[in-house]
Amino acid sequence: MPFENIGFAELDHHRALRKGFPEVILGEGKTPEQVAAIAEKLLAQGDTLLVTRVGKDCLEALKKVAPRAVYHVEARAISVDRNKVKKPGVSVVCAGTADLPVAEEAAVTAEVMGSHVEKAYDVGVAGIHRLFDKLDALRVANAIVVVAGMEGALPSVVAGLVSAPVIAVPTSAGYGASFGGLAPLLTMLNACSPGVAVVNIDNGFGAGYLAAVINRLAARPTDAQKGQQPRGGSR
Amino acid sequence: MPFENIGFAELDHHRALRKGFPEVILGEGKTPEQVAAIAEKLLAQGDTLLVTRVGKDCLEALKKVAPRAVYHVEARAISVDRNKVKKPGVSVVCAGTADLPVAEEAAVTAEVMGSHVEKAYDVGVAGIHRLFDKLDALRVANAIVVVAGMEGALPSVVAGLVSAPVIAVPTSAGYGASFGGLAPLLTMLNACSPGVAVVNIDNGFGAGYLAAVINRLAARPTDAQKGQQPRGGSR
Amino acid sequence: MPFENIGFAELDHHRALRKGFPEVILGEGKTPEQVAAIAEKLLAQGDTLLVTRVGKDCLEALKKVAPRAVYHVEARAISVDRNKVKKPGVSVVCAGTADLPVAEEAAVTAEVMGSHVEKAYDVGVAGIHRLFDKLDALRVANAIVVVAGMEGALPSVVAGLVSAPVIAVPTSAGYGASFGGLAPLLTMLNACSPGVAVVNIDNGFGAGYLAAVINRLAARPTDAQKGQQPRGGSR
Amino acid sequence: MPFENIGFAELDHHRALRKGFPEVILGEGKTPEQVAAIAEKLLAQGDTLLVTRVGKDCLEALKKVAPRAVYHVEARAISVDRNKVKKPGVSVVCAGTADLPVAEEAAVTAEVMGSHVEKAYDVGVAGIHRLFDKLDALRVANAIVVVAGMEGALPSVVAGLVSAPVIAVPTSAGYGASFGGLAPLLTMLNACSPGVAVVNIDNGFGAGYLAAVINRLAARPTDAQKGQQPRGGSR
Amino acid sequence: MPFENIGFAELDHHRALRKGFPEVILGEGKTPEQVAAIAEKLLAQGDTLLVTRVGKDCLEALKKVAPRAVYHVEARAISVDRNKVKKPGVSVVCAGTADLPVAEEAAVTAEVMGSHVEKAYDVGVAGIHRLFDKLDALRVANAIVVVAGMEGALPSVVAGLVSAPVIAVPTSAGYGASFGGLAPLLTMLNACSPGVAVVNIDNGFGAGYLAAVINRLAARPTDAQKGQQPRGGSR
Amino acid sequence: MPFENIGFAELDHHRALRKGFPEVILGEGKTPEQVAAIAEKLLAQGDTLLVTRVGKDCLEALKKVAPRAVYHVEARAISVDRNKVKKPGVSVVCAGTADLPVAEEAAVTAEVMGSHVEKAYDVGVAGIHRLFDKLDALRVANAIVVVAGMEGALPSVVAGLVSAPVIAVPTSAGYGASFGGLAPLLTMLNACSPGVAVVNIDNGFGAGYLAAVINRLAARPTDAQKGQQPRGGSR
Amino acid sequence: MPFENIGFAELDHHRALRKGFPEVILGEGKTPEQVAAIAEKLLAQGDTLLVTRVGKDCLEALKKVAPRAVYHVEARAISVDRNKVKKPGVSVVCAGTADLPVAEEAAVTAEVMGSHVEKAYDVGVAGIHRLFDKLDALRVANAIVVVAGMEGALPSVVAGLVSAPVIAVPTSAGYGASFGGLAPLLTMLNACSPGVAVVNIDNGFGAGYLAAVINRLAARPTDAQKGQQPRGGSR
Amino acid sequence: MPFENIGFAELDHHRALRKGFPEVILGEGKTPEQVAAIAEKLLAQGDTLLVTRVGKDCLEALKKVAPRAVYHVEARAISVDRNKVKKPGVSVVCAGTADLPVAEEAAVTAEVMGSHVEKAYDVGVAGIHRLFDKLDALRVANAIVVVAGMEGALPSVVAGLVSAPVIAVPTSAGYGASFGGLAPLLTMLNACSPGVAVVNIDNGFGAGYLAAVINRLAARPTDAQKGQQPRGGSR
Fold first, then answer.
1. Of A135, C106, G221, H96, which is most buried, counting CB atoms within 10 Å of its CB?
2. Tens of pLDDT, residues E78-117
3. Element (H, E) at A167
4. pLDDT computed for residue C59 by the predictor
5. Residue (of G53, G88, G91, G48) closest to G68 by Cα position
């Protein structure tokens, strides 16, 4: 199984075969030069690139090896994505505006991995009628990422209303007894609605990745495609 | 300020004056004889009695000093209640059947303190339409106790829909990452809906007490009374 | 039920109907421009505005859409309040000078929501006679907010002396085994005096809101009004 | 949306429509009579039944309303399952013999929900060659449940080797610094391999449910069927 | 420095010289025979004996080697105490009846170590006037042990009123967010009144020991002795 | 009982009567002007002043009302101390150089309160012979403050060797699993040597205060005075 | 690499090659029949057997397949050990009598793995001179297991005095703020003496195993053998 | 036993005798001047010096007393090492690039203490084939340091494959539910593979020290020396 030593890292080129998607670069703690060096090697063997948790200053270094790299401000991510065909089927839902960066990280990740993403933001349980307005789109999704900080109740509520798998992402948005995201993490792990699984606090990448993996598996793209057309009144 | 030493306890007879309701006996850790001895002293100075967290075996000892004492099986409480006029205005809502004992402790407490209690049980967020069916009753309440274990999301959802104060009670119903009720406790403390305050895990008594205190203060008893009559369609 | 999408947020205009008070803006994590944009929309439909956890730099942006906006330095809040009639009945008590910002956030919130607030500051249990001096005012309140950091013992003591509901607010003031406010939070949740409910650490807003809601419900405004006149000796 | 009040519970008959599978009965904390009463109502409207966390003594009561009910000893579950066609595609992997009950709960749940389950038990990282022997089966799965107590490292390792979504279940098997399953829970939430999501400690049901939901969505049943035939050497 | 090996223990006979009091036997986890064997050795070299956390069944075994051993039911301790002269100066205060066993362990320990103990029990902050009634006795003490469970606020209040050192003992009496005594432990560590130090949860022995050590050091026995005589009205 | 309102604080002038020492100013979170205002009032009624957790910039403001104020760099404290007679009897022991600021805060506090302090610094258990060298001084102390971070083992060891009360102070010096001082805090609370009580993490003030209170009570000043002269060989 | 499926377990026969010692059976959670079945298979391929955390009732079932099996009461372990030659060099030190079962588990494990074990029990820091008496034996060891509950200070002290690696084992012996062994665990992880590593709470097996592995590596068996002969005075 | 007081520290010159290696300077919290002063004293009595957790700015001060001092950038350490003969036998393995500084601290420490270190970096379990490529080197080591953040699974996997003792170092690399390294710490303490012991979070020094101590003890240097020569194909 192939991998490549570039001094400070062992690149796992075999990952695309095993996992169906190449290695993703966690930008945090790496210099722009290190990111660019890894990116160059990965792009030599694949079509797409994703760097997460990275400042905009990294874009310049990356442009030298990947001129078409794009910086996503909210998501704090950089992507190169040469494949423009996206399969519908992933929804990203988020409770409050403070959870937006994590939701965007999830959305960018799923997009880069080949899914078209529907978004429903700022629909937390304090005004639950805002969520009900989005239900039609949620009910045709193959995988739903639900991002929430503070009390983190939204994934339970969503999972009670849909049949698709819900990937819950607790965020560190909050204060006091949120304890850095521990509160919504525990909430989501104890969800009384079946069909919920949880990723790490603020891990938008992990949730978007998993949603895209599930969507890739799914047999019903047409449902979601229809979901983008006007819907009838029978619901 | 009067109090009475009966050997193993200092009875605080002045409490009815300060607090508007006499001392309540926490049954846990007391013998039936101790409970009966305290009860006798308290009933000599007041009309009502409440013993919480007590087994049915305590009833017999208590009957000797309070023949009309009643045992509430679900609530694990004993009450003597000579005042039958109850002011409407308190609702007790509960998420799952496992939370029922705590909800009943809240209901019995509020009843003994002079409030009529409306109940909405087993209406957790996994099937949130069950809650919406009860909204009319909740919207006329002066104080709402919401009891939930597991992820404890219900108080946030309820508080997003009503104007009355919500007293949230986390319960130890759950397992694993519930950590004995820590999960719903944190959820409720981080509620994104304003108008929620929280009491200790499994503290149905504290919540029912506070709801009754608020209801006693409230100026709109007639709303709630009307709430018990057929309602029109404008809501 | 109406709500309005302004790009980065879904404004819940229906909230004033459901909750009796319009949405409050949590300033933390929003730019002055975002705060001003939301404020403009909310003020188009209501008389009052409250922005919490906000620096003074936000005031300038807000002045453009709300010229009469006021910045409260201690509370770190901005308010617009066109309704000057306030119902007496809310007291805010605070243990130490370090708890003052949270107490002021509670007071400003309750004021904006239509309550007149009596304050008793720096009356912690290390010198409990200072509290006893304020008891007359506390005993005529309809709702009492008690703010304390460090060991957080004050709400228990207050609740043992009055009949009104006590909304306890733990603060992160302290060090070491305070663990960011965990210590007073647990203290307050375990209060042995009945009639105490707790909100999140440093959540002055939530406590002030709940106190105002309870005061709005209450039938005894005149007691508190009398409370502002000279009181006789019978107490 | 239909639901039915049977005194101590509000049955959510609409759930099968919303979620694609009827309500599951959590046996813990319910009497055999309560379980049987709920089961009778649910079976009147559906073909299958699942009761989890239930002792064998409950079977007798259930036999009266569901003569073909089966008790699964390891899983501590009861099922009625009239639909014998199962779609291949779910694998359940478990680290040690102490994790077996949770793994079996996952397997029974997925089976009742229509998935055929391949099992790979006792393949923990202390002897990782045992896992490699099972890789062919894992690589054709649509969803993989990985159950582990103690240090909970297995899901990371599995997810590094396959492309299917991994549902990780921490168990309370362990002692000391396992802290009731907290250790493997944190391990799994911090998994460095993408494609892992986590459910509550000991929540075999939740993991099996989610795996079956994903498998139901999946387009590649034939892969897994082929997986049961001899495979060539190209892997 | 002398010590003696008796097979399962190394007896530290030198301790009486170093510490001014011989080794105390922690009964928990030892058989009656082991306790008796150690007791016999210790009594061979000293006048007093204390066994803590021990059932009454141990008394019989101990009577064989120490016929005058006494069992203290509430304190769950056994003592042999040949020295009847006690120096006044230690007070033991306790908040609720559930804290009584820990308070009694403290009192028995201090008595065996040569101090006369004044007791003020069931004087928790829910009815703080009960404490004020005991203040005269507390103000002449050289060391005060304050025992409290639940929110554990009493030591702060006491220390705000007296000049003697306060040894605070949190107890595990409580439920829910008491977390086995963690709540009062944190409360006491964060006490805002100076002059408070804390021992382990339920460690009545440690507190009584320390109070007796301080009292032994103290120069003002006469104050406390006068404290046992009728006091005038000027306080 | 007298107290004085100066706008932002209620000064407790009665404290010197109740506690034997005037109020101490916690500098943290107060402006130099606030500190100076409080200091002026306190000095008007007493001879000494102590301000803790304060930067040197505060000294200038304080000099205007208290020209003889002294800044203690290591302790981060300011004192005014007109009474130069100090009673011997307090020792302050500290484990490592990182614990020095906390040890110095304890020493300055005890000095201001009238005790002469012997110091034994950098004598942690990694080289325990350094402690044994100081034992003579420790054995004549009336009260010993032991300050330690990291594993916090020193108080147990010291308390096993002396008869005086040991006031243990955990510090936040350390990293990783120290968790901000939680590790040494728990260590000290679980000390197997009797005679140890614990104050909050980094609370040098509280420990020095308590040591001085105990020393003030003590009858054996002469021992400690002798302790400053050459000692014979009999130990 | 060989392994054997016996239905409920995958036996890792290759482990003896990889690790130098065959698989050890964790008795907890296995029936006597399961233990015996695994034992029979393991003994068919090796000379020794170790079963930990097992009751004496398991011995009978084991005797059928391993007639020379021995039950170790304190250690709660069963061993078969056909190789009687033991290499000196392992010491097991334990703080209190309550830690004895864990210490014995370590000792039995190291013995079965071929090391001769020197024991120093009940030498906790409350009477540290008892430890100094054992120093000669400790200084010739190749690996030292130090077992302690409560505050867990002993490993730091030992590691400050010797050059051999110290394997620290926290135990759950203690109460209150021990939190099931968390206190000594944190103590040991923060040890200020270099040369300490820690295993799980109560994990005597893990410590004994590691000590034996280190001793097996060591070049100085003769030192330890000499250690059993009279030593000169130069130490 | 010799030690030297230099004002702010008690230097433990005897440590080299007791422990076989002189005191190491923890740079954190010391000024460059303090570090240089201590270093000068230590170098006066020994050949080597190690300063950990130190910035490069300290090097200049140190050069004055130790001109040949070297700064290790990744490890944030300074060393003086006059003894160039190194015994092979220590391996340092690390999971991700973010763990590199801790791994380097371990490597530098072991080198200064006389061991030659083989390194295997960036071989985490997400691509476990990278680890297998390094197995030959690991199997001839006498002691292996394994450094990992996030889920910390690597030590278990390594210990399942080798016979040498594994010293596991959790790092604070990670986010969210890593809780500053708590997650990998618990993972490693619960390792199911025998032969693992754990040091504090980020404590590369402690692990490198222990590995060098074990390697110094070991009898098989030649294996590892052979490991530095070209290896044949038979492995």
1. C106
2. 999 887 789 999 999 999 989 999 999 999 999 999 999 9
3. strand A166-170
4. 95
5. G48
Q: For A181-226, write each residue's pLDDT tens digit.
A: 999 999 999 999 999 999 999 999 999 999 999 999 998 654 444 4
Q: What's the CA gap between C5 and A59, in Å, rounded?
A: 32
Q: Helices F204-217 and F100-112 sit at what angle, rounded to 10 degrees?
A: 40
**Residue in G189, G205, G214 closest to H217 by CB:** G214
A125, A233, D71 from A157: Cα distances, Å:
8, 24, 32
Give all strands (DSSP E) within H60-165, no chain letters.
Answer: 70-72, 77-81, 87-94, 115-121, 143-148
Say what percent of chain D tops pLDDT 70. Answer: 92
Instruction: Please state, in angstroms and rounded to a whole number, the distance separating the CA atoms of residues E170 and E199.
Output: 8
Provide DSSP, chain F: ---EE-SS-EE-TTHHHHHSS---EE-TT--HHHHHHHHHHHHTT-SEEEEES--THHHHHHHHH-TT-EEETTTTEEEEE-----EEEEEEEESSGGGHHHHHHHHHHHHHTTEEEEEEES--GGGTHHHHTTHHHHHT-SEEEEEE-TT--HHHHHHTT-SS-EEEEE---S-GGGGGGHHHHHHHHT-SSSSEEE--TT-HHHHHHHHHHHHHHBS-HHHHHHHTS---S--
How far apart are the CA of C109 and the nearest CA of chain B, in angstroms? Answer: 12
Q: How far apart are CA F77 and CA F54, in angstroms?
A: 6
> What's residue F113's pLDDT?
94
Q: Please list the ranges in chain C whose pLDDT falls under 70.
A: 1-2, 220-235
Rounded-to-integer distance, Cα B108 and Cα B110, Å: 6
**D24, A194: Cβ pair inside 8 Å?**
yes
pTM value is 0.93
Chains that touch A (3 or more CB pairs under 8 A): B, C, D, H
Packing angle of the helix pair D100-112, D204-217 (nearest 10 deg)? 40
3+ Cβ–Cβ pairs closer than 8 Å linking A and H: yes
pLDDT of residue B17: 73
Closest CA–CA distance from residue B209 to any residue of chain E (Å): 15
How many beta-carbon pairs under 8 angstroms link A with H?
50
Predicted confidence (pLDDT) per residue in H10-49, tens digit: 877 777 778 878 889 999 888 899 899 999 999 988 888 9
Chains E and G, touching by 3 or more CB pairs within 8 angstroms:
yes
Minimum-distance CB partner of F122 among H10, H172, H182: H10
Please choose, from the candidates E48, E83, E75, E97, the residue with its C-alpha nearest in 3D space to the C-alpha of residue E208: E75
* Assembly ipTM: 0.90
Show which of residues 16-45 on chain E sit within 8 Å of chain G, judged by CB atoms.
Answer: 26, 28-30, 34
DSSP letter string, G133-181: TTHHHHHT-SEEEEEE-TT--HHHHHHTT-SS-EEEEE-S-S-GGGGGG
